[in-house]
Amino acid sequence: MTEKTFTKAELAKFNGKDDVKKYVAVDGVVYDMTDVPAWQGDQHHGQTPGNDLSDAILKAPHKKSVLAKLPVVGKLTD
Fold first, then answer.
1. For residue 76, what are the contacts with CB-CB under 8 A and spacing of at least 6?
2. DSSP per-residue codes, the chain
3. Segments of the chain scoring below 70 in pLDDT
4. Are 64 and 36 in contact (CB under 8 A)?
5. SUPFAM superfamilies in the record, alphabetically (predicted)?
6. 56 phi and psi, to 5 degrees?
7. What pLDDT score does 44 carry?
8. What CATH homologous superfamily does 5-76 map to?
9. How far is 70 from 20, CA to CA, in rounded Å?
10. Cβ distance 74 to 11 under 8 Å?
């Protein structure tokens, strides 16, 4: 199976609005946050889905430790 790739513009479409899934990128990997309870609202601690959160995750108390539990949906290309 070919891995899905996303540009930043394509990633931005996965913002959770209009029944669209919620995706975020960290270090070039795109994760599905749709079913993560902490992401059920429009944002999570001021961060919104559809974005590259590589810098923001380093400021979070959990850092990157949560990423291993998340479904990977592809790679960010730019």
1. 5, 6, 7, 8, 11, 25, 28, 29, 30, 52
2. -PPPEE-HHHHHT-BSGGG--BEEEETTEEEE-TT-GGGSSS-BTTB-SSSB-TTGGGGSTTGGGGGGGSPEEEEE--
3. 1-2, 61
4. no
5. Cytochrome b5-like heme/steroid binding domain
6. -65, -35
7. 77
8. Cytochrome b5-like heme/steroid binding domain (3.10.120.10)
9. 17
10. no
Query: What type of residue sits at position 38?
Result: A
Structure tokens at 59: 């400021």
6 is written with which tokens?
């996303």
Q: Residue 76 in contact with residue 39, Cβ under 8 Å?
A: no
Q: Where are the domains of the chain?
A: 5-76
Q: Hey, what are 74's tokens?
A: 């592809």
